[in-house]
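User: I'm putting together notes for a lab meeting next week and I want to include a structural view of one of the chains we've been expressing. I don't have a solved structure, so I'd like a prediction I can at least talk through. The sequence is below, exactly as it appears in our construct file.
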Amino acid sequence: MQGAPARILIAGAHPIFRDGLKRLLETEAGLQVVGEAADAAATLQLVRTLTPDLLLFDLAMPDVGLDVLRALAATAKLPRTIVLTGSIGTKELLVALKLGVLGIVLKESTTKSLCESIGRVLNDQYALAPEQVGDLVRAMFGSPGKGLVRRNRFHLTRRQLEIVSAIALGETNKEVAQHLSISQETVKRHLSTIFDKLGVFSRLELAIFALNHGLIHHVVDAD
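Assistant: Thanks for the context. Below is the predicted structure for the 223-residue chain, given as structure tokens.
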């Protein structure tokens, strides 16, 4: 990272958790922990007074959950936010994204994974595991083929839209190839074209794009 370090606020109930996370982050160039909050009131106050570039929020904060983020979204600008959690249900995931959360990182994740997620979020990109995106898509839209909608403003072919839907649901290239009865090489070629048409650079970005633009179902009038 270049220029001034990214200013990070850590919100979590347990001092050991906050201290460990602070020590970890301050070993990374370009990151600076500017504050720590142990409860909801402190989180709200420090977000407003410190205006951090990034909020790292422990979802396990007692009797808080996503209420702090709701309050921030209602009364102030929610900073770029990563939720740290041991697990998260699809309903909570959907609420978090609607509130403006950009990243969900499991506490069992590696340091490298956390730092990569921080980098993505600081660049205003989503940082979600592919399986989280798949669960979210299933909860919102069901499986591919349950509905037919007209969604071809991005000039994707019928086959490409089928592949987008499958990738958004977390399928591998091999699984896509099997259920569409095409080769894995054909899947790869289609993905390369899809990435170019939509301006995305990864399967995760493709899944998020598909979710945000209603590309999840199979389509009619696609060709």
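A couple of points you could mention at the meeting. Residues 144-150, 218-223 have pLDDT under 50 and may be disordered. Strands lie at 6-11, 31-37, 54-58, 80-85, 103-106, 148-149, 218-219.

User: Perfect, that's what I needed.
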